[in-house]
Amino acid sequence: MKLDTSGFETTMPMIGFGSNNDMLDGFCSVPSFDLPRTTDFDGFQKEAVQMVKPAKGTTTLAFIFKEGVMVAADSRASMGGYISSQSVKKIIEINPYMLGTMAGGAADCQFWHRNLGIKCRLHELANKRRISVSGASKLLANMLYSYRGMGLSVGTMIAGWDETGPGLYYVDNEGGRLKGDRFSVGSGSPYAYGVLDSGYKFDMSVEEALELARRSIYHATFRDGASGGVASVYHVGPNGWKKLSGDDVGELHYHYYPVAPATAEHVMEEAAE
Amino acid sequence: MSIFEYNGSAVVAMVGKNCFAIASDRRLGVQLQTIATDFKRISKIHDHLFIGLSGLATDVQTLYQRLVFRHKLYQLREERDMKPETFASLVSAILYEKRFGPYLCQPVIAGLGDDNKPFICTMDSIGAKELAKDFVVSGTASESLYGACEAMFKPDMEAEELFETISQALLSSVDRDCLSGWGGHVYVVTPNEIKERILKGRMD
């Protein structure tokens, strides 16, 4: 299979079509793919994707408000029913003014975000100015599109602050790229959306936005089995991102819903069913 | 995910000195979504006999109702409570009746027998009895529970120490399982009293 390997090189990308096409020199064209030699092509593709694709068991969210972008995520990694880690960093620092969130395959997200950081830096050096959030998300989306159908699992949000103000894009492994004000990604996203949408106002202060983001992640971890651990919240302002809080969700529950201490009673009653 | 992991559950029972403890988690879920955090998995058959059922929640409730019915009938006929060993055989027979369309649950039975000797056993969903002298586990978190109990268990613990041990084993195991947890429910039974306690656990 001929892949677009420009992600792995720092020189000009190889051209996929015939190399005698002068017009395409200097452009990154769509690579041509060799097909695998198999009798059941669709079945083989399905199997390959299912084998590699882990479920997007997580909750991440991001929203734009008056003071910038708020980005929050949980920290649980699950393999089926087993919790493999409660302390995964799901908010990836691409560069000092841009953040990416991780949902889906951890290796995929980490690699491609780091790769994106490299490309952004190269852009800065080549053009003497920072890359826009729109440009950065487009670079990532195009790269993921060229690997479409190969089993990458990436559901990420690119959040940053550039000359046009705060920017937020959703990019996924299908090659989709959406611009928006509010996104939540992962198995816990329906629960997070419920809290986020009902509490959202554009004119919030940083503290109110922090509390809204933290509360949304907390509610998602309560209802969703695949989310949990620590709720981290970052803020992206005109001067770059800053981590605001990282609260253990187990403790947050009793902070929001304190329990009156119950006394142990002798229970000698009829089985009333 | 298999049908046994549809609702999520964790049940454990431990033997102490003339006492026993039985504990379960409190989550009821539909695959990854949590529906309730106060689901009762452990039920009393009589003052010295408890049964905890893990697995599909609807079968947990139905099986429990059938067993209570059979025990009440036994009480009327024999004018006494059933011994734990006898009850275990009854459960095993009821489960095997449905050999080719089983109840999708794994019971954990704990009771005080003759001379207040503690008795625990577990079964698979078609009634294979497994007696143990120390502890039995069942549910989606069973592998973690085996590890935790093996590490924390000591023979001949008194009621208070037994409570601490079983609670720690339960909480640490369900904290490694997406499908169980959200609190804990512990019964510690001695010849003279039953102590029921709710555990504060991680709610994620």
From TrEMBL, chain A:
It is found in: Cytoplasm; Nucleus. Component of the proteasome complex. Component of the 20S core complex of the 26S proteasome. The 26S proteasome is composed of a core protease (CP), known as the 20S proteasome, capped at one or both ends by the 19S regulatory particle (RP/PA700). The 20S proteasome core is composed of 28 subunits that are arranged in four stacked rings, resulting in a barrel-shaped structure. The two end rings are each formed by seven alpha subunits, and the two central rings are each formed by seven beta subunits. The catalytic chamber with the active sites is on the inside of the barrel. GO terms for cellular component: cytoplasm; nucleus; proteasome complex. One of its GO terms (molecular function) is threonine-type endopeptidase activity. One of its GO terms (biological process) is proteolysis. It comes from Cardamine amara subsp. amara. The keyword Hydrolase applies. Keywords: Cytoplasm, Hydrolase, Nucleus, Protease, Proteasome, Threonine protease, Zymogen. It comes from the Eukaryota. InterPro entries: Ntn_hydrolases_N, Pept_T1A_subB, Proteasome_bsu_CS, Proteasome_sua/b, Proteasome_suB-type. Component of the proteasome, a multicatalytic proteinase complex which is characterized by its ability to cleave peptides with Arg, Phe, Tyr, Leu, and Glu adjacent to the leaving group at neutral or slightly basic pH. The proteasome has an ATP-dependent proteolytic activity. It catalyses: Cleavage of peptide bonds with very broad specificity. Belongs to the peptidase T1B family. This is Proteasome subunit beta. The keyword Cytoplasm applies. The active site is at T58 (nucleophile).
UniProtKB/TrEMBL annotation, chain B:
PROSITE patterns: PROTEASOME_BETA_1 (PS00854), PROTEASOME_BETA_2 (PS51476). It comes from the Eukaryota. It is found in: Cytoplasm; Nucleus. Its main location: cytoplasm. Keywords: Cytoplasm, Nucleus, Proteasome. Gene3D superfamilies: Glutamine Phosphoribosylpyrophosphate, subunit 1, domain 1 (3.60.20.10). The keyword Nucleus applies. The keyword Plastid does not apply. InterPro entries: Ntn_hydrolases_N (IPR029055), Proteasome_beta_3 (IPR033811), Proteasome_bsu_CS (IPR016050), Proteasome_sua/b (IPR001353), Proteasome_suB-type (IPR023333). One of its GO terms (cellular component) is proteasome complex. Non-catalytic component of the proteasome, a multicatalytic proteinase complex which is characterized by its ability to cleave peptides with Arg, Phe, Tyr, Leu, and Glu adjacent to the leaving group at neutral or slightly basic pH. The proteasome has an ATP-dependent proteolytic activity. Component of the proteasome, a multicatalytic proteinase complex which is characterized by its ability to cleave peptides with Arg, Phe, Tyr, Leu, and Glu adjacent to the leaving group at neutral or slightly basic pH. The proteasome has an ATP-dependent proteolytic activity. Component of the 20S core complex of the 26S proteasome. The 26S proteasome is composed of a core protease (CP), known as the 20S proteasome, capped at one or both ends by the 19S regulatory particle (RP/PA700). The 20S proteasome core is composed of 28 subunits that are arranged in four stacked rings, resulting in a barrel-shaped structure. The two end rings are each formed by seven alpha subunits, and the two central rings are each formed by seven beta subunits. The catalytic chamber with the active sites is on the inside of the barrel. Component of the proteasome complex. Belongs to the peptidase T1B family. This is Proteasome subunit beta. It comes from Cardamine amara subsp. amara.
